Amino acid sequence: MESIGNKPDLYEIVGVPRTATEEEIKKAYKKQAVRLHPDRNPNRQEEANRQFQELNNAAKILTDPERRRRYDKTGIIDGDGEQQGVNPFDIFENLFRGGGGMPGMPGFFGSGGGFNREQGKEGSRGGKSPDKKLTVNLSLAEVYLGKLVPLDFVKMVCCDTCQGRGAKNVEAIITCNGCNGQGRIVKMMQMGPMIQQLVQPCSMCAGKGKMIKPGNECGNCHGKKSVGIKQHLDCYVRPGSQSGTIITFKNESDWHPDFTDVGDLVVFINSKNEEVGFQREGDNLIMKRSISLLEALTGTLIYFKHLDERVIKVVYENIIHPNQKMVIQGEGMPNIHDNLDKGNLIILFEVQFPQTLDKDRAKYLIKILPTLKKQIWDLQLEKTPETDLTIHTMEPFLDANHSTSSTRSAQQQYGADGVEDESNNTSGFNMPGSVDCATQ
What we know:
Number of domains: 3
Oligomer: single chain
CATH superfamily of the largest domain: Urease metallochaperone UreE, N-terminal domain
Helix content: 10-25%
Radius of gyration: 39 Å
Structural class: alpha+beta
CATH class of the largest domain: Mainly Beta
Order of helices and strands: EEHHHHHEHEEEEEEEEEEEHEEEEHHE
CATH topology of the largest domain: HSP40/DNAj peptide-binding domain
Number of strands: 19
Shape: elongated
Distance between the termini: 84 Å
């Protein structure tokens, strides 16, 4: 081991070069502390205690800018003969606070940042900085096809000029005068006969215990320790993505001096569920289509443009009943995990009946269209004398909302938005007589 004036070299003890930054020293210290901690070395307690205290003394000096500067200049270990009153485990706790405890030793000092237990200074929180969140709005057609979305945003990074110190040089970082380096201030408040003591973070140094000498702030970041840069990323949204899909870019959040690592950029996908006559339900697409009574009875031929601009032709030669549902396999939304696997297109048909009918044409329909067979409980009207009949005329029934009874019945079955209420339809999509459409 190298030494200076018969003293051990502090950089070698921690395991870093002399050019190491404060963050590199802290990371190396944590690694060494885990290895040398007496609780991890029960078979050599005495030697481990000595090495652990030596490591902590070295870290305490090298992480203090002023003491490190004096050590680099003179080679003298600042504070020799005065360290007996320092508990090395306090240093260990301060540097590990917020890092989730000591690896392999659950329960050490808990987790989370805050103030050091004795000195009240804000310690490094460790872990990742908060995630940055962005929202991308897409149409139904865009999530059907998939889309490459360009993301342009401002990302905060560590200031290269001051290496994240916020000051022009290390000497410009001084002890806070407001809290005398404690990072907190104590206020006494009298409430009647009782006196309450309040401990608050120092507003001058934001609980750090250190502050930048006025006029010595970094000219690049102006003392903020970070600067904003323009960042560009390409975000690929896979076909079939649903509203609420999350896409994560690792370590693309903002840098923050209180954290050891950079958080993630989290992109939320917000997409429409209805567009150009289509409505999405999971991986299925719902389309409503109105046809005439003639089409319903004599055969249906419809054309429509799909979300990918393909023109679809649908032919069905049998009778379509009012509010019948038909299905076209494989023309729904692509599955996000397997784009070759697609949902179905479900078509809900509404049959438009004519408002009036000429009597002469009605005669032909009577001959052409089949009539219902009489039931055994039907009255034999031809045997009832005309004078014994009570005759009325009918008119459309208007409810409180001035809609006809047939309209109200449809609303009860399909709801106000026209989507069928499955609680009123026991057959669901498998209505008697429903047949898959053929596509050409």
